[in-house]
Amino acid sequence: MATSLEINPTLSFTLLGSCALYAVSRPTRVAWVCVATIAVLMRLAVVRLRGGIDSYYGTWWITWGAFLGLASIVVLAAQTARTRTHGDASRHKLLQGTFFAACVFPILALLVGDALRLIAWIDQKTLDAFLLKFDGSLGFQPSFLLGRMLSSLPKLWGPTTVVYYALPLGVSILYASYLRRAQCGEQTRVSILGLFLSLIAAGTCVYALFPAIGPAHSYPNLFPWHSPLLSDIVMEPLMGGEALRNCMPSLHFAGALAIFWNSRLWPRWGRILAGIFLLATVFATLSLGEHYLVDLVVAFPFTLFFQASWSVKVPFRDARRFRALLVGAIGTVVWLAILRYGLQVFLLSPLIPWTALITTVSWCWLAKSNLDTA
User: Is this structure's pTM higher than 0.85?
Assistant: First the structure.
């Protein structure tokens, strides 16, 4: 008996982003009809051969993103080959670049997934207790608090999971808008593709150095209703099983922050939506128990470093770019080191972790603002 096909919702949104990138090439109506037809045929084939698709919140419409994305890549590949054969050099160059853009994020998503599984296989232990201890030093457990809030509002659970999965689509929409500007001859301020590729690659490497899986996975019997007392949290590695080590720093929040920081070319309503998505990502990452608050704090200097690295219109010798690089690099390294080896300093008084948190966010935001003026 055929088993239903499991289509990862994050991968579905990633492939839907490929469809959004395909739109940058301004396809004809015939091309869109071909995309829709191929997507429908692929979905019917999956239902026929596998008996259906695994169910989760939003399955019916989220999984369409996977089929539309794959169909867009197929049609785009055919158009790219056709323009090369017919000698349309300018059109071929545009389609070739769009094809690369449409493929790079799905391929990266698959590679990162394999890398995270390899990290979990190499080292079974995680450092979640250290992160939980820091959050507790603030006087409460933010993820447990928001987790209880979400659990008491069951109708909010579905939309919250969608926000958590939808980040790749937001990244692709941002990249598509930058590609459209570049095609119009405008020089963009930031290399968006380089920013996100390096952010994801470096973040995956840090996951191997500081493995953590989130409170919902490391403390399944406690989250979200029973916040552990600070004195009960023993700072020692925990067994994490097969859960993916993708906690520190939060690439979900880092990606949403990068979208917000680089949404300045959008109209006002677009920037407002980017801000709402950023706040919704904060709620989703914490309330679902996938991250600790400190993961989001470390994401600030981590994102700032790559934002400054790929700000192509500002020379390296400019003090504002160098300062942003320095704040980002030092902030990330210091946080990772002190969370692993000097956590006791935060336990002296709640004033110390709150000061460190507010100072980090303020310095990073100030450095990013100064970078923008450059």
Answer: yes
